Amino acid sequence: METNYKKLFYMGIAYDACPWDGRKLKKNGLPVKKLSREFPYLLGEGRTAAEKLQVYFALLPEYGGKTLFGRKPKSWKADTAGRLLEEAQLRAERAFDCREHMMEPGLNGGRDQVLPELLAAYLYRQRPFDRICVSLPDEGGERELELAESLLCPYLPRIRQVVFRGKESGLSEGLEEYLYDEFGIVMVRDYGRVKDMPWLDLQEDGPDSFKQNLHDEPHDAERRYGTKGNGHISLATALKFLDTAVKNGYNTDVNSYRKAAVIDRYQNL
């Protein structure tokens, strides 16, 4: 059966970096790369076969170069950085048909840009599980409830318990009705620590949460959230997951280039 792909273009910052390959980015633009990994996910009613999220990316080096004297890092002009990112986005759309794009919070990205498919891919990584904890915003409407239902639905036929954590609201009541009417699941409430199950946390998560999560280690997540390892699935942790995968791919490219450059210099001695 043919696999369905969702294409995503991600723009971020390569911190503490200058253009690494001698390329004059102002002239040639940011290169658009394809991440070698693909991320399977399940999303929506009737989804039993995983689809895949395919990620393309461009990272802007934090610095445009170094000063002539002192060799200190030199920042980009704001209009130059903006133009490079805009051109890269257009290139990704035309060359690779990337209709969806995201920016890390350092480039003014935020929670509204996070794709449901990204959350679904991060949830997919938590399998297998037959219990799950869910948190919802205190306020919201059909959009937020539909997101929760779409993320949960593929797993609910095999789920034996859904635990709700947070304040009761119209959203929690709507989810409770959906679970019972469609799957016969009685949602239970637990205001304590989340243990031995994934936690789908759809409460507010902004850029500050993303930046805090950048430096989280697994034991930090367990201490802060009461859950094991990466079991906390939120907008911020899903974005960190994507950002880490992209920057690992970028570093692989950088290291490959540097290795090739060293070999080339050695052969020309």
DSSP summary, beta strand count: 11
**Helical content, roughly?**
25-40%
Distance between the termini: 53 Å
Q: Summarize the main sheet.
A: 5 strands, parallel
Note the run of SSEs as H and E: EHEEEEHEHEHEHEEHHEH
The low-pLDDT segments are: 217-229, 257-269
Alpha plus pi helix count: 8
Strand order of the largest sheet: 9-8-7-10-11
Strand content: 15-25%
Category by helix and strand content: alpha/beta
The averaged pLDDT comes out at: 81
- Overall shape: it is elongated
Radius of gyration based on Cα positions: 21 Å
Textual characterization of the structure:
With 269 residues, the protein is of the alpha/beta class. Helices cover 39% and strands 21% of the residues. It is built from eight helices and eleven strands. Helix 3 packs across helix 8. The longest helix has 33 residues. The N and C termini lie far apart (53 Å). The relative contact order is 0.15.
Brief digest:
With 269 residues, this protein is an alpha/beta fold. The protein is built from 8 helices and 11 strands. 39% of the residues lie in helices and 21% in strands.
